[in-house]
Description:
Rhopdopsin 7-helix transmembrane proteins, mainly alpha, 2 domains, 11 helices
Amino acid sequence: MLLIGGGLAFFVSLLCFVPIIIIDASVGDSNPLYNLHRGCVEYCEKTGCVGDKCFQHCRFSSDGVSVDGPWYMQEPLYLRWKHWDCQTDCRYHCMLDTERDRQMDGHGPVKYHGKWPFKRAFGIQEPVSVAFSALNLAMQFHGWLSFFILLYYKLPQSPQNRKPYYEFSGLWHIYGLVAMNAWFWSAVFHSRDVDYTEKLDYSSAVALLGYSFTLAILRTFNVRGEAARVMVAAPLLAFVTTHILYLNCYKLDYGMNMVVCVAMGIAQLLLWAVWAGVTRHPSRWKLWTVVVGSGLAMLLEIYDFPPYKGYIDAHAIWHASTIPLTFLWWSFIKDDAEYRTSILLKKVK
C-alpha cells in the first residue's frame, strides 16, 4: 500500500491498482527457463535442496511438525509465522536460479506469479517497501502526536468544557488512527504476501480512502453541525463498509475495487483542489504542494520497473515519496487548527 487526505488520496487509490498490475503482467510464468525450473521446484520439494542450498523445514509437514524427528526438531517459530514453508522456499530459490540464467544470457528480470523477483532480507519479502511503510507509519504517528499536543497544550481551549475550539479535531484524531492502521498493514503485507495479509492491507487502504473522502467533504464544505455530519457520513461509511465486507467475505474483485478506489480518490482530489483555489487559507500553498506532489508520485506506479539489485522498485520509491508529503499534510492540518481557532476566538471576543 499508502495515505493521507486530499491529493494523497491518489496514494490509496494506487494501492488498489496493484493487484491489476500484478495479474496482467507475469511474463516469467511462461518463460521457457522457468518451465525448465519447474522440475527444480518439484525436485526441491522432494529433496529439500536447490543446488548446494538445502532447507531444513522441507522435512516438516504443513502444520510445522517434523515428519521424521522428535518435537525439538519442529520448524522455527519465526518461519512458521512468516509462512515460509518448503514450497515457497523452493519456488523462491528456483526463481533466483532462473533469473541468474537469464542474466547470463543477457536478459533482464521478469515477473513470476505476478511479482518481481525480490531478494529477501531477514526473511522479509520486500524489505525496502517494508522499511518505507514503517517510516510512513512513524511519520503519521509524529503528525498525529504533534497535532494532539498543539490542540491540548498550545492552543487555547473553550472555558466551558475545556475542549479545543477547532471543530474538526475529533475527525482528524480518527483519521490519524485509520492512517496508522493502513500503513501498519502495508508493512505487514510487503513483509509477506499471503491471502490474509493482502485482504487486511487492501481493506485498510479502502477504509482510509473512504474516511478521508468523507473528511474532505466535511472540511471543504465546512460542515459543523452534528446532524449534518451524520447525514453526510452515514451513507458513505455504509458504502465503504459494504465494499470491504464484499471483498473479504464474497469475492476479492480487483477490477471493481479499482473502480471504487479511483472514483473516491479523484473525487476528493477535486474537492481539495477546488477548495484550495477559492479559499483564502494562509496555508493553501501546502495543500497545493500535496495535490501536485501526489500527481507526480502517481507516475512511479505507472512507470513500473524491476527492482534494482533485487530490492528497490518503483513501488518502493513511491512509498518513499509519501513520507515528506505526509509531513507536509499534517503541517497543513495543524495550520488549519490554528487558523480556525484564531477566527473563532475573534468571534468570541
